Amino acid sequence: MSTKTLYRPVGQAELDLIQATHWKRFPPRLDWQPIFYPVLTEEYAVFIAQQWNTKDPNSGYVGYVLQFEIDENYIESFPVQNVGGPESLEYWIPAEELETFNDQISGGIHVIHEFRPEQETMR
Predict the structure, then answer these.
(1) Is the pTM of this model over 0.70?
(2) pLDDT band at residue 105 using 50, 70 and 90 as cut-offs
(3) Helix-then-strand count for the chain, H and E
(4) Coil, strand or helix: which one is 46?
(5) pLDDT above 70: percentage of residues in the chain
């Protein structure tokens, strides 16, 4: 199986839910979240985690960047969405498709960056 590397910026609450799955699955979306959006580049995920999550009380004022591998044939069935500049690329996975998406993850979900207000990258 060929895989594609994707990234996901998250706050503390979402990270805790992922950890509870032994780093294997993303949690269901909340009622007001119709899509799940993994991003295509580490740089874009870092930007979101550092600039948004660290300023958001719902994220616990912390941002993490997660990295994972997903079946390439599966993820390529979704069009890439450009949500801003040329680096702002993500997939939009409908909330009702998230369980199937999780089944396509190869290996685990890994924390590769952690950001807190006014701090540089920590490992």
Answers:
(1) yes
(2) very high
(3) 4, 7
(4) helix
(5) 96
Residues shown for the chain: 123
Q: For residue 29, give both structure tokens.
A: 């979306």
Look-up: residue for tokens 């960056």? 113
Contact between residue 38 and residue 7 where contact means Cβ atoms under 8 Å apart: yes
Question: How large is the greatest C-alpha to C-alpha distance in the chain, in angstroms?
Answer: 41
Burial (CB count <10 Å: 0-12, 13-18, 19+), residue 104: middle
The residues near 88 (Cβ < 8 Å, ≥ 6 apart) are: 44, 82
| Cβ-contact 68, 122 below 8 angstroms | no
17-54 pLDDT, tens digit each:
999 999 999 999 999 999 999 999 999 999 999 999 99
Integer Cα distance of 95 and 39 in angstroms: 16
Say whether 12 sits in a helix, a strand or coil: helix
